[in-house]
Amino acid sequence: MNPAQPKTPPAAAAATQYTWAGRFSEPMSELVKRYTASVGFDQRMWRQDIRGSLAHARMLARQQIISAADLADIERGMAQVAAEIERGEFEWSLDLEDVHLNIEKRLTSLVGDAGKRLHTGRSRNDQVATDIRLYLRDAIDDILLLLREFQNNLLDLAEREAATPMPGFTHLQVAQPITFGHHLLAWFEMTRRDAERFVDVRRRTNRLPLGAAALAGTTYPIDREYVAAQLDFDGVCENSLDAVSDRDFAIEFCAASALLMMHFSRMSEELVLWMNPRFAFVKIADRFCTGSSIMPQKKNPDVAELARGKTGRVYGHLTALLTLMKGQPLAYNKDNQEDKEPLFDAVDTVSDTLRIYAEMISGISSRPDNMRDALRQGFATATDLADYLTRKGLPFRDAHEAVGLAVRRAEELGVDLPQLSLAELKTFSPLIDEDIFAVLTVEGSLSSRNHLGGTSPEQVRAAVARARSRQPGA
Ligand code: ARG
């Protein structure tokens, strides 16, 4: 047999359903088909895939690579494909491997040759890279909106709690009085940096890979800038090999997501502690708590615990993508198909966590009496007494020691510092006078920390006002 002789391969009938089956002589095994297909998960990018294809087709027509009639057919066919998918009538086929081939095949069955011309000057390699970037850009925009909603509700709560005294902790031991509003604003700052990171990731994500084709560009007179402008990209990826191969933007997204989840995990841990009856610092609306199937008295902070738990999977996705990338030679490798599930799950986890937290934060209220009891038991104004003595001329280290003795005495008597008599207090330092009692109150302690970044109610209200006037990510 002469191998150069053109002939129909024996299994051509079975293999023709594959767009690329021309050079193959036997059909793919079922197992390989399942192993290599991505349509089960990448169909979620169908909107981006159609949007990218339409921009590509318009460019092809504008450059006279395809005819205006072909473009019209493609536009009409794609509108129908989109409608079918939207209505849940589209039949996704494993035989067609991925979202790209499924849509292209259906388009071709609807409009014939024009559908077959769509892929001119394009490869699935630059197509998929474009789709993911479009998808991620949209996801980041949604996340930024959710983050802003969470922050707005958080700021409302912080304003309501601007003057509520609670213990601030170090080493989880009562340290000094703070306002609950101030504590909540620490959460705000954490998420503000998260928003900045997402804005930054979006900037690098928002570049167009299309035009890179498989890896080396294309022989057609394409206009990449025109496609970029149509898709609202800020510019094009400037090297065709890099355009189809790197997924660093997805890795960055997972890194920003991991940091965000780390912050929400810390908040969650605090909510879990504060819900515990030993603290009993906050109430969370019942709709965010669950009961126990065996212990009727229980009210569990499940949402917070799950957010803390889900942080682990996002860390996992970051590690997965870093590892996915590290051994790949240029340019595209099929390994990259594995970028999607971790990325999608990171998007879902972050979005759901933000959505639920945005609501839950409005359902939180303080229990001021319990916060005040904890302050009292913890001698939270001890530093204020030391500062008072220092202002009167005692070196701080000596003041620290005198107050330590006073705390020990108060502990023996089972009272808080302001409950010691003036005569008793004077035994620790003759510098102590009647004016000490204003200093030792929680309100006195709070209002005296009145500087930028401080905990006084006045500063909390000012910080809330500043925060409200800023744009997310700015
Ligand atoms: N489904 C593939 C992916 O997600 C599309 C690109 C496939 N390209 C190829 N030459 N096999 O990466």
Question: What can you tell me about this protein's structure?
Answer:
It is a single chain. The chain is mainly α. The protein folds into three domains: 31-117, Fumarase/aspartase (N-terminal domain) (Fumarase C, Chain B, domain 1), CATH 1.10.275; 124-164 and 178-212 and 239-372, Fumarase C, Chain A, domain 2, CATH 1.20.200; 376-470, Orthogonal Bundle (Ribonucleotide Reductase Protein R1, domain 1). The protein is built from 21 helices and six strands. It has helices spanning 12-15, 30-36, 39-42, 46-62, 68-86, 99-111, 113-117, 124-160, 180-205, 224-230, 240-245, 248-275, 302-326, 340-362, 368-377, 382-391, 396-413, 422-426, 436-440, 442-448, 457-469, and strands at residues 165-170, 173-179, 207-208, 235-236, 282-284, 364-366. The strands form three sheets. A two-stranded antiparallel ribbon has the order 1-2. The protein has a two-stranded parallel sheet with strand order 3-4. Strand 3, helix 10 (224-230) and strand 4 (235-236) form a beta-alpha-beta unit. The longest helix has 37 residues, at 124-160. The radius of gyration is 31 Å and the shape is elongated. 40% of the residues are buried. Mean pLDDT is 94; it is low at 1-14. Residues 38, 42, 98, 124-125, 128, 334, 336-337 line the site of arginine.
